[in-house]
């Protein structure tokens, strides 16, 4: 069962929101967003499909009514599920009021002093901030290509930035080592000097310890580069993370490996990792 129908005391739309109500109603009645997504899936395929949908969703978020658009998408999806799994379903008025309620709550949250202060002080306090870097590497022998990715998060787990890149030739082990290098360089570029680096590759973490003998490793040059980066930081901790909790970095690395893409920086999570972010959050 879905949430109960809102009472008058739950939410009272403002006059400005009531002016937007006809627009929301039109979107809900025609399902423009879902028909648009269906056309995209029907006419595009593979990587181009994902890129098109990513740019489509990015344009929605950048619109002045982006929060409202996301609320419409969210409640359209819930409305559809409710009609399938519940005979009663939602009324149009029920969905409309919940869209306006959620849009107001989300917009208020984004404009809160805590959120604003976090963004404004990101650059000025970076050197004193402790961040977490989740890294992962991917190796595809069929195309002889590696993909590396790293995600920088703050102490609360919020996304600060991410980067991904592909390399020709290599191995699964080298991809993990290079992912560590990519992540540490990205953190340094952002000004962070205190980091906790998470990897699901125990072997890569082992060779990066100063006491480990690496003379027999073919990739000792790359290992030494990463060790030098670790030494340049004020404080660093290397930790192993369960593979089941590193889905997002894995998805970015696989995407870079698949597309053979040059280095990319993701200031916001791309749409193709949303499902992975959810899996990481519940793991």
Can you tell me about this structure?
The protein has 283 residues and is α/β, with parallel strands linked by helices. The chain folds into 2 domains: 15-111, no CATH class; 126-282, 2-Layer Sandwich (Nucleotidyltransferase, domain 5), CATH 3.30.420. The protein is 53% helix and 16% strand. It contains 11 helices and 6 strands. A hairpin with a 5-residue loop joins strand 2 and strand 3. The longest helix has 20 residues, at 66-85. The protein starts with 14 loop residues before the first helix and ends with a helix.
Termini gap: 25 Å
Kindly provide the name of the CATH class of the largest domain.
Alpha Beta
How would you write the strand order of the largest sheet?
5-4-1-2-3-6
SS-based class: alpha/beta
Q: Count of helices? A: 11
* SSE succession: HHHHHHEEEHEHHEHEH
Strand content: 15-25%
Average of per-residue pLDDT values: 78
| Number of distinct beta strands | 6
Write out the CATH superfamily name of the largest domain.
Ribonuclease H-like superfamily/Ribonuclease H
Helical residues, percent: 40-55%
Q: From the alpha-carbon coordinates, what is the Rg to the nearest angstrom?
A: 23 Å
Shape: elongated
Main sheet: strands, sense, barrel: 6 strands, mixed
List the domain count as a whole number: 2
Enumerate the spans where pLDDT stays under 50 for 5 or more consecutive residues.
Answer: 1-11, 29-46, 113-124
CATH topology heading of the largest domain: Nucleotidyltransferase, domain 5
CATH architecture of the largest domain: 2-Layer Sandwich
